[in-house]
Amino acid sequence: MTACCRVFPATWSRLVWRPPRSPGRRPLSLFSSPGASTWTKVVSDAEKLVGYPTSFMSLRCLLSDELSNVAMHVRKLVGTRHPLLNTARGFVYDSKSSLQMRGLVVLLMSKAAGPSPAASHLTAQDMVSGIYPSQRNLAEITELIHTAFLVHRGIVNLKEWTVSDGPLKDMQFGNKMAVLSGDFLLASACTGLAQLDNTKVVELISSAIGDVVQGLYYENCHAAEGAGATDDVDMVTWEEQMFLSHGALLAKSCQAAMELAKHDQEAQRLAYKYGKHLSLGHKLNSDLHPFMRGSMGETVSFSLRAAPVFLHRQMIGEERWHQQLEQAKGQRDRLDYSKLLAAVKSEKGVSSAVDLCCYHSNKALEALRAFPPSEARSALENIASAVTIF
């Protein structure tokens, strides 16, 4: 199974369709208050199906003696703007209900597929709420890996440090804690992975870790190069890079869950496909947030590699894009994101990103059709629909 994500047609710029609404399933949106509350209900209902809430799936590891000591030291960062503080808060309360979504999806996929006739050495008595213990362990491992990379992302570039961020020594200390904590979580995940005693699963998840590292490398390189970082990157390459950092872990974890229950290659392929397209849809959903709010006078900020921006610059060409960048510069050559937001919204970058989000949601739903109808499959369908913007 390749890590590359060549799923979007070459004629992406002409894509204007929107997937048909399935009978009986109400489209969900995450960008308004009603949508956000509906998303919370979708997650809550899904958690009931797998036997217990997954919002604190990695809490057992987070409450270990090692990380409890780290937490004591992290209190020194209170009063600073170190990102590790926000990451730590997210472990306890995540208003978007998305921090621990990967483990939930792995459990739902395991339940939706059910036991395999080929798994003669596994008995139904071993299952809890239709899920094998090894699949639950895999879900926890997936969350630990994701959490480890979240912590590592909280490392601050001290070259951009300002006095308002906090004392320099505290920011340096925060970086050390981010490195050590992330490494500990990753090591714990690898230990649990070895205990699954399945060579193929170890290979899948290990390759997913490598994919995430490669994807983050691309992101950091482009961030260092600045606004012209995607001059030579086409849409297919952009999606491949986004898949590495945002989709490979979930896609390969879903496939690994099928392998643990000894499902055939086709079931594994479909599980991988669902995880891949759900992840890309979720990434597009996240990228679209600043462009969908539209509140006047609100301070906005977004990545220049966000999907609407990337699609916008692909449509208008690099020469006009750099002209717009110059026009959006304010004092000290800092970008006025409000002006840039208006420029992007004036073209079709946002609507094309919406259509691309619909495309990936539809492909995720398509992958589920081969699984037998069940509450778990319906929950996976609702999650896929919830990342779609209508």
Written description of the protein model:
The chain is mostly helical. The chain has one domain (27-292, 301-386): Farnesyl Diphosphate Synthase, CATH 1.10.600.10. The chain contains 16 helices and no strands. Helix 5 runs antiparallel to helix 16 (375-386) and helix 6 runs antiparallel to helix 7 (168-195). Mean pLDDT is 76; it is low at 1-35 and 92-99.
In short:
This protein has helices at 33-49, 59-62, 65-74, 83-92, 101-113, 133-153, 168-195, 199-225, 235-246, 248-260, 265-293, 307-316, 318-327, 337-346, 349-368, 375-386. The protein is mostly helical.
Walk me through the topology.
Blueprint: H1 33-49, H2 59-62, H3 65-74, H4 83-92, H5 101-113, H6 133-153, H7 168-195, H8 199-225, H9 235-246, H10 248-260, H11 265-293, H12 307-316, H13 318-327, H14 337-346, H15 349-368, H16 375-386
Helix pairs in contact: 1-16, 3-7, 5-6, 5-10, 5-16, 6-7, 6-10, 8-9, 8-10, 9-11, 10-11, 11-15, 12-13, 12-15, 15-16
